[in-house]
Amino acid sequence: MSKIKVVFDTNILFSGTGWRGSPFYCLQLARQGKVTVLVCREILAEYHEKLQTKLGMTPTQATRAAAEILSFSTLIEISGSLQVVLDDPDDDKVIECAVTGKATYIVSGDHHLLDMNEYNSIPIVRASSLSERAILPQISPTSTDFSAKKLSESPHFSSKNSPNLGSRIALRQTARNFIELMEAQVE
Q: Domain 4-186: which CATH class?
């Protein structure tokens, strides 16, 4: 059986970063390698921006959070040409990422996407139903080193508290890759 491939809408990434709940457990599935996350630059850029404007993270903190998402995701290049969400064209990037990456599911809390139910035979589901639909095991709240606090307050992103130098180095490299990715998008 092939691994389930999902695209998380920005609101799932954002909610899964700041609080516990279904979006958080969806991200845990990805961190544990139980699903493959597909993400594009455009979703990461929006996530990066929302972390700063809505959670008050510094650019460095937001970059670290986006780099952490990228560290367990597959980057998908999209053209930006798909136009299917008429009421909210900003959501087109989610659909295009899913189609291009041949996703199994789109996971969202956005009514514009959820109201579509599916696109191109890709079901659009809520975070709370991902485990049911995908028949995935439940993730124990104790299986994580993240807390319900804002990610910016999490010991996961504090280099002095990190027990594993190798993972800190890998995360820094992923952060550098993310910065280069964002700079390439601006050019």
A: alpha beta
Q: Cα–Cα–Cα angle for 64, 68, 70, nearest 5°?
A: 115
Cross-sheet strand order for the sheet of 118-119: 73-75, 35-39, 4-8, 105-107, 122-125, 118-119
Residue 36: beta bridge partners?
5
- 8 A C-beta contact, residue 11 and residue 109: yes
Q: Which residue has the tokens 């609101």?
A: 11
Distance CA(179)–CA(41), nearest Å, equals 11
CA atoms within 13 A on the CB side of 114: 13
pTM across the whole model = 0.73
Write out pLDDT tens, residues 90-149. Answer: 899 999 999 999 999 999 999 999 999 999 999 999 998 876 654 344 433 343 433 333
Q: Where are the domains of the chain?
A: 4-186
The length of the chain is 187
Phi, psi torsion values for 48, nearest 5 degrees: -55, -45
Contacts of 79 (CB under 8 A, 6+ apart): 96
CA distance 118 to 113: 8
